[in-house]
Here is the input.
Amino acid sequence: MTDTIDQLRAELLSAVSGAADVPALEDARVNALGKKGRITALMATLGSLAPEEKKAFGQRVNVLKTEVSEALDARKAVLAGAALDARLATERMDVSMSVRPEAKGSLHPISQTIDEIAAIFGTMGFDLAEGPDVEDDFHNFTALNFPPGHPARDMHDTFFLPTAEDGNRYLLRTHTSPVQIRTMMTQKPPIRVIIPGRTYRCDYDMTHTPMFHQVELLVIDTETNMSHLRGCLQEFVRTYFGVEDLTTRFRPSFFPFTEPSAEMDIGCSRQGGELKIGNYGDWLEILGCGMVHPNVLRACGLDPEVYQGFAAGMGIERIAMLKYGIPDLRTFFESDLRWLRHYGFAALDVPSVTGGLSR
Ligand code: DAH
Here is the structure.
């Protein structure tokens, strides 16, 4: 009997210490202590023993049971530690490794151009104003003196939203001009703001994208005239393009919200198929502008006998393309990393008129 128990102990303990992983150890446990295990079977023989043998035998089997249980626990701790070490080894990360080169970010040329425009008009005392991309008919058209049914409404290729519960037909603003209205209705003159932002029209080809950017200019005061407008815009294009004596030309035009209205051209050359900004005798259209129409002032609660002012609107992509030699408008919004790396700007080079607009 003694032999049997000692033999069994040796066998079970060697199985436990030899278990190479957690499932193997579980097998060893079941084989020893499970319902049909070896120790359990040994216990079951107790009843067949003579009464004087029972006590001693029972005690020895219990000791064996304890020994095997303890050996199982000890081996389990060793295996669990080893498993954790193995997992940590596979999940190890070298935090000193250099980042991938793609992770370097840069400023999009649109952001850069907006920063440059803000820096230039900032030195002339202009503030920045903003408005919502989703507009209503009143701000985008009616208050800007587009009569109902006016063909200019159709010319804008407007994206309309489904008619809202309040009966309004909301739309994606087709220009930044509605923010003129919002500004005049909330601020007291003198007003001097620039309004950069996204605009939307249902159009897509080499020179049109459904979303693009504009910057609007608005000045309202009591003694504002067309020469102020001309001076501001001329100062802007000279600084922006870095051509000190750049000539500008006003051509008569039409916009419902200005009277008189003009389009401004800047000097350029197209010789050899290459566009150059400067006084070379050729002309390039750059923006629309004019004196704010009395009807627009009235729509905003301003008395046209007291106040007047000027406004201008300009496409940001267009002037960015001209300055940075970007040939295709659509590439602005393709998020091509190679393009962004080529045309992007360092985030810390904040444009300023005195420190330099772009490097
Ligand atoms: N809102 C016009 C457009 O998108 C641009 C424009 C022209 C704005 C003349 C003005 C302006 O403020 O005076 O076509």
Notes: Strands lie at 127-128, 134-135, 171-172, 191-200, 211-221, 248-255, 258-269, 276-277, 282-292, 308-315. The mean pLDDT is 91.
